[in-house]
Amino acid sequence: MNESHARLTVDRIDRLVHDRIVPAVNAHAIPVDVLRWDAPGEPVPFAEAVRADYRPSEPGEAWGAPWSTTWFRLETTVPATWRAEDGLVELAVDLGFTRANPGFQAEGTAWDADGRIIKGIQPRNAHVPVRAIAGQRVVVYVEAAGNPDLARSGAESFLPTGLGRRETAGSACQYRRGDFLLTQRDETVWSLLQDLRALRGLVDVLPADRPRRSRVLEAMDAMLALVDPHDVGSTAEAGRSALRPALASPAAASAHAVVATGHAHIDSAWLWPLRETRRKVARTYSNVLSLMEEYPDLVYACPAAQHLSWIESDYPELFARVRAAVQEGRFVLVGGMWVESDTNMPSGESLVRQFVEGKQYMREKFGVETHEVWLPDSFGFSAAFPQIARQAGCGWFLSQKLSWNDTNRMPHHSFLWEGIDGSRVYAHFPPVDTYNSDLSAADLDRAERQFTSPERANTSLVPFGYGDGGGGPTREMMEAARRTADLEGSPRVSVGTPAAFFTASEAADPRPPVWSGELYLELHRGVFTSQADTKRGNRRSEALLHEAELWAATACVRRGAPYPYDRLADLWRTVLLGQFHDILPGSAIGWVYDEFKQKYAQIERDTEEITASALGSLCGVGDTGAPSVMASANSTPFPAAGVPAGGVGAAVPPASRTVAVEDAAGWTLDNGEVRVHVGRDGAIDSLVHVALGREVVPDGEKAGVPQLFRDNPAKWDAWDLDPIAAGTGRPLLGADAVWLDGGSAEPTVRVERTFGDSALSQSISLVPGRAQVDVSCDVDWHESEHLLKIAYPVDIRSDHFASEIQFGHLNRPLHTNTSWDEARFEVCAHRWVYIDEPGFGVGIVNDSTYGHDVTKADSGRAAVIRQSLLRAPKYPDPDADQGRHRFRTRIVVGEGLEDVIAAGYEVNCPPRLVEAAGPVEPLVRPENELGCAVLDTVKLAQDRSGDVILRVYEALGGRARIRLHVSEEIARAALTDLLEREERALDVEGDSVVLGLRPLQVATVRLSWRR
């Protein structure tokens, strides 16, 4: 067939489908009687809504102010003339949405009259199945969510908008109600439509010179001759007969194989608040269960324990149906995490708890152990993650996000991903490059064209179903899967589980390639900085929970104090929810951050109460009548000022204090360890390690200088930092006031600056008795589309720098030899970055900053470390970061990495002053016999046995041997996985346990006491 004829056939098919076949699908349709009730505020349960006063509703009327809820009551009787022997009719519900962007506009939940959810209603899935025969009365309620209409507003282009926080009450309605109809589907016409969609898609993807394409077009030509546009219903079967030979032609023996898994990526919060996600989850799960009734072969992958927990709480009847589908093996739990978390910024213990809470919930509620990590949309992946996943019992990992890279393309789709300790997981990046596939010919063709495979493997996974805003698979997608199960010109599609895919792929791939280190996303680099308050809240909550668990466990073992298991679990789950990959990264709407500001404040109140109660029990004030003294409670893993790690005692003051001297150029601060000169412009122009006589600040440079950059990313406002921004920075050197504050505990240089509409104050002081400098920064930030950094040039020559990540560190290159190096121009670090030469190093420690860039100075003989403090994106929250912020930085000079690690803990968990009758010995006192092993976590076991759990890791990248001295008599010690299941017993030597660690290894130790 020549191309001119081909184009004519395609045009005729498209017109026939749009104008004749689609309208003929619903052979019978009648309007239904509709009443409405507008809920006055937040969503209400069905039981309340059904008792409300409803009023008549007509097509075309306005409804749906932003974030509002309107309930519609639909009532009709199935006409006696309808043939409904199978008892199945449908309601077609048009809430006034468009076909664009499912999940980003109005949605609905259909309920039967008894309060049972039937299914969700979305733009491309707007039918509601109803079991009713001719003459039977039908009553259905639709809970319609007036979510902001992003499909019409243009917000899907991610340009600056006013979406931000919750719109005020009384905002204009966004939607006009369409027709609500009772329909009866013509199955033959509908099947013809699915046949045509499958073959029409092949025409678009097959090359024009392929004989297969010509045969498909000839079959469609034959169909056109047989289907009467004026009587589609009567001629549809003849049309299907003409298409059957084309649909029966089998795929080539070498065709790519696709395992299609139903899925709905549901962002736990993004362009909607948490409360709307709870309803999105219910709509999606009910859609899936309804579809499973029609398609028993459907397999659906459900990744987040938090979503299941919401369903259990809000929709118990739906939860029972989900549990039944899980037991049948069709509703498949994957992921094993509490939420689909960011993996760059959460602490090591937070990532552990993502698995502990997620897997424990799935085991307890469903009896299921998950083995896959399912993170299709997170913004890059920490090099610490493979070890954590492995120790949590997960050997498989799935994502597709790196297909978004702006510079380099990942060379593998199935590979072994190796972490910092050498642990490996088998990873798969679906070459379809989406987690929202509709199983179209275009998607399947992309998966086959892009798949890169070593040796024998020729299979990829395709997650199909509408996502982000939820919705999930549809019957059209299931029909597409059936037609492409063995279809010439297409990959072979089988609907199956992720476990089936991974098992088969591993077996076919005996020597997969290895990718070592982080999986850095070359996009969305701004998420390490956006919404600074939330990042501070996360970091602070992690530290407070660390303290609360340590002291509560110690008080329980020592004093028999009750351990607040439930309270701590609830607090952890709130923190874990906040680490979802659109919350912690700062890419959600303002409503979400308003809510989390309150949540973090409550976490602080609760953890402070737990800690105060535990320390009060331990410190024994009033127990013996002995006089009390002020003491220091040290919750860090390192001794501090004479107080042991995990203990309480009197702090030993340093032998010398800071001396301040003023000269014509500024002020010198000297504590005997470091000597700092701060110029009249408020910048550090000299920083000398006294014992070594080593100057840190390069000639002509200044440290601690704020820098302001234009920040106008090309597309993703809150997400991206474009490389062009790096050339727009200007130092903020003009100080309004600089003075020496001698009245504070330590002499401190104060600096005040104003710029634009903002103000910035800095305080520079020395840490008594240490070669360390504290620089605090208070910012009243009112800029728009700008980025604030602070620069620390250091006179150190190196080709790499170290960044703290979970349970260790990652070395990254300072050079830009390759495009991969060049693209990594903004990176994530936890509490510190460190750069050194043999015998001398400098660490920059922070209390809440994640975004950093570290580059070579222009001379090539020095480096510049910059912290990214604040941004001011306009989308999706136009008020992002506006207001007051405080940042604390510590410069650690000349010390080794171990001292930088200790400073990181101290800055984030500073000593706590308490009233004590005497010293409190640590429950567990760590002693390094070789290397540096860090006792990061002390808590009681999840099973509430009273056993103590210790989390230890090797921090420097070498071998370590640590002796854990225990103050109570040990009955048993064992090494466990992260889920606290015993792997092997450990030898107990008197009052201690000795543990050897490989480089950057994490170990979990379980201690049982003699009681």
Task: Write structural notes for this entry.
With 1011 residues, the protein is α+β, with helices and mostly antiparallel strands. It folds into five domains: 3-21 and 188-248, no CATH class; 32-185, Sandwich (Immunoglobulin-like); 253-269 and 300-523, 7-stranded beta/alpha barrel; 666-909, Distorted Sandwich (Beta-galactosidase, Chain A, domain 5); 923-1011, Immunoglobulin-like (Sandwich). The protein has 19 helices and 54 strands. A nine-stranded antiparallel beta sheet has the order 32-33-34-35-44-41-40-37-38, with helices on one face. Strands 3-2-5-10-7-8 form a six-stranded antiparallel beta sheet. A hairpin with a 5-residue loop joins strand 34 (758-766) and strand 35. Helix 1 (3-25) packs across helix 5 and helix 16 (565-578) packs antiparallel against helix 17 (590-619).
Shape: elongated
How many domains, in number, for the residues?
A: 5
| Widest β-sheet, arrangement of strands | 32-33-34-35-44-41-40-37-38
CATH topology of the largest domain: Beta-galactosidase, Chain A, domain 5
Unreliable runs, pLDDT <50, ≥5 residues?
none
Protein name: Alpha-mannosidase
Pfam families: Alpha-mann_mid, Ams1-like_1st, Glyco_hydro38C2, Glyco_hydro_38C, Glyco_hydro_38N
Keywords: Glycosidase, Hydrolase, Metal-binding
Organism: Schaalia naturae
What are the main properties of this structure?
alpha+beta, Immunoglobulin-like, 7-stranded beta/alpha barrel, 5 domains, nine-stranded antiparallel beta sheet, 19 helices, 27% helix, 30% strand, elongated
Strand-helix topology:
Blueprint: H1 3-25, E1 26-31, E2 33-38, H2 46-49, E3 55-56, E4 62-63, E5 68-77, E6 88-93, E7 107-112, E8 117-121, E9 127-131, E10 137-146, H3 150-153, E11 175-176, E12 180-185, H4 187-205, H5 211-226, H6 232-248, E13 257-263, H7 274-294, E14 300-304, H8 305-314, H9 316-328, E15 331-337, H10 348-366, E16 372-374, H11 385-391, E17 396-398, E18 414-418, E19 424-428, H12 441-450, E20 459-464, H13 475-483, E21 492-495, H14 498-507, E22 514-516, H15 532-559, H16 565-578, H17 590-619, E23 629-633, E24 648-649, E25 659-663, E26 666-670, E27 674-679, E28 684-689, E29 694-695, E30 705-710, E31 730-731, E32 737-741, E33 748-755, E34 758-766, E35 772-781, E36 786-794, E37 800-805, E38 808-813, H18 819-823, E39 827-828, E40 832-837, E41 840-846, E42 851-856, E43 863-870, E44 883-893, H19 897-908, E45 912-916, E46 924-930, E47 933-940, E48 948-954, E49 960-966, E50 970-976, E51 982-986, E52 988-989, E53 992-997, E54 1002-1009
Parallel strand pairs: 13-14, 13-20, 13-21, 14-15, 16-17, 17-19, 18-22
Antiparallel strand pairs: 1-12, 2-3, 2-5, 4-11, 5-10, 6-9, 6-12, 7-8, 7-10, 18-19, 23-24, 23-45, 25-26, 26-27, 27-28, 28-29, 30-31, 30-36, 32-33, 33-34, 34-35, 35-44, 36-43, 37-38, 37-40, 39-42, 40-41, 41-44, 42-43, 46-49, 47-48, 48-54, 49-53, 50-51, 50-54, 52-53
Helix pairs in contact: 1-4, 1-5, 4-5, 4-6, 4-13, 5-6, 7-8, 7-9, 8-9, 10-16, 15-16, 15-17, 16-17
